[in-house]
Recover the amino acids of this structure.
């Protein structure tokens, strides 16, 4: 695909749209919202244009005001729109029953993540049935480099696509930077094994178990991960090997899901 000519970008500018998108992208990074003055200062705009744009975003319910009326935050409308997008919605709908069956059998939680703008986005999550456990928050953005989900996603890409993903990558909070040569070696091992067992680099005592959902060209369209916790009391829970086998079965079941827009996996004979 040809690179965009800078003159084309200037020719098709839409300043009002850019202002609105700038506000949404800024607020997406703010846990507690921002005042109008803070938004104006951060974006280097004048107060009157920010006032008009914020009023429209509030009226269209993309942004909400705090009860006191002095701070602005993102609403859930963008999240809802993303999940109404048919390919994503169908993948999640297909995945959740399979993930729930896994969680019930394995007595562990699991989550499904897909690549999104340089990192991974958790698009589905199911808790285990026990009284305690560990899970990754639905909608969380997680690291591409140092998580099981990220490693498997990168391992099952073409060299060109992997380079593109790494070029887009920006570190999430706490993400560990790793040597590119070591990563390439890790990708080769993951491809050979077809999955990954890896001690979590975020939490002690957790073993990440990750399997890809592959497209017809052998590239991962999503990754299914279980943050495995080992019981140390007298209760006999499924072992790591048992859980890995169950997660592999779940990933294989989802890999037979055919969705052209998502480049879903072809069925595996036998």
């Amino acid at each position: 695909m040809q690179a965009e000519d800078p003159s084309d970008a200037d020719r098709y500018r839409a300043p009002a749209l850019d202002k609105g998108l700038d506000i949404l992208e800024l607020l997406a990074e703010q846990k507690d919202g921002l005042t109008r003055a803070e938004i104006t200062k951060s974006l280097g705009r004048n107060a009157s244009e920010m006032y008009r744009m914020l009023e429209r975003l509030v009226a269209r319910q993309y942004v909400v005001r705090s009860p006191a009326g002095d701070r602005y935050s993102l609403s859930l409308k963008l999240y809802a729109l993303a999940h109404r997008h048919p390919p994503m919605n169908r993948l999640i709908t297909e995945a959740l029953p399979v993930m729930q069956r896994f969680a019930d059998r394995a007595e562990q939680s699991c989550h499904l993540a897909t690549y999104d703008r340089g990192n991974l986005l958790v698009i589905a999550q199911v808790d285990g049935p026990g009284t305690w456990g560990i899970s990754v928050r639905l909608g969380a953005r997680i690291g591409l480099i140092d998580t099981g989900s990220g490693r498997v996603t990168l391992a099952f890409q073409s060299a060109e696509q992997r380079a593109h993903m790494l070029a887009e990558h920006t570190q999430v909070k706490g993400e560990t930077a790793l040597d590119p040569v070591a990563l390439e070696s890790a990708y080769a091992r993951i491809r050979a094994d077809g999955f990954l067992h890896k001690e979590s680099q975020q939490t002690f005592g957790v073993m990440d178990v990750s399997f890809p959902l592959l497209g017809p060209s052998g590239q991962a369209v999503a990754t299914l991960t279980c943050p495995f916790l080992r019981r140390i009391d007298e209760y006999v829970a499924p072992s790591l090997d048992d859980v890995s086998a169950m997660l592999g079965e779940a990933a294989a079941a989802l890999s037979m899901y055919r969705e052209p827009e998502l480049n879903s996996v072809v069925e595996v004979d036998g």
